[in-house]
Design brief:
Elements lengths: L4 E2 L5 H8 L7 H8 L1 H13 L4 E3 L7 H7 L5 H18 L6 E6 L14 H15 L5 E7 L2 H12 L5 E5 L15 H8 L6 E5 L3 H15 L3 E5 L25 H13 L4 E4 L5 H16 L3
Parallel strand pairs: 1-8, 2-3, 3-4, 4-5, 5-6, 6-7, 7-8
Amino acid sequence: MNRITLLDGGMGQELIRRSGQEPTPLWSASIMLEQPQLVESLHVDFIEAGADVITINAYSSTPERLQRHASAHLFETLQIAACETALRAREACAATGVRVAGCLPPLVASYRPDLAPEESTSLQSYRALSNLQARYVDLFLCETMGSISEALLAVTAAIETGKPVWLAITLDDRHPECLRSGEPLSRAMAAFRKLPLEAVLLNCSRPETISQSWSMFAEATGRPAGAYANGFTSIDSLQPGGTVSSLEARNDLGPTAYADFVMDWVEQGATIVGGCCEVSPAHIACIRDRLAGRATAPH
C-alpha cells in the first residue's frame, strides 16, 4: 500500500461547539485571542486521532479580513499565536513525526474568488502571510482556492519561502467539473502542472462533488493527489462577512459515512486525505482505523 498521509479536520465548527459561543466573521481569530487553550486542545485531539499533518488556526487572520472586521495591527499577533499553538500541541503529544502546515486561504471570502483583491495586493498579502509563517511551519497549504488566479498568487508567495507547498482547490458543487470561479477544472490542472508543487488536493466541497471529479483530477495532477471534503448541506447561504451560523451541517455524514468516501478516494489513488469543515477528530480517527485495516488485510 502506498503510504497515506492523514490530515486533520475542520477547526472552526468544532471550536464553536467546544466554546459554546456564537461565531463571528473572524471566528478563528477571535478564539485564538480569547481561548487559545481550546485551539491547542483541538490540535492535540486531531494528533491523537491519527493526523500526520495539522494546519495552523489562521484561516480568517488575513490582512483583508482583519482590516474589515477588527484591526490590521492584530495580524502578526494572531499569526504567531496560531503557529506557536500548533507547535505546543505537537510537543505536548511528543508527536515528532507530525508536520505543521501553514495556511494560505482566500484573502477576503471563501468560495468567492471574484472578491479577491487585485493581483499585486493579493501577492503582497500572501507574501506577508507566508514570510511570517515560514519561521514556524514545515510546509504550506494553499487551501480553498476558488480560481486559477487566486491559487497561482498564493502558491507563488509560498514557493518563495523554500518550503514544500501543497495546493488545495475547491469545486462548484453544482458543476463538479469547474472551480468555484466557473473555470474548468481541466484548465486549472493544466496551469498548475507548471508549478513546483509537492501535492495537489481537492477541498471544502461536498464529498460527492470530489468523487464525481476525482478521476479527471487525479489523472491531470502529475504528482501526489488527495482530498478533504466539508460536511455542509450547501454553502450557498454564506455571504462575505457572514458567519457559519448560516450553514447547516449534514446529518448523514458521520465518521463511518465520511470514511467510506475517503477510502474510495484512497482506492483510486489518493495519498493525502483528511477533512475540512464539520469533520471532527472522531471522523479522522475512523479514517485512521480504516486505513490501518486496509494495511493489514490479506491480499
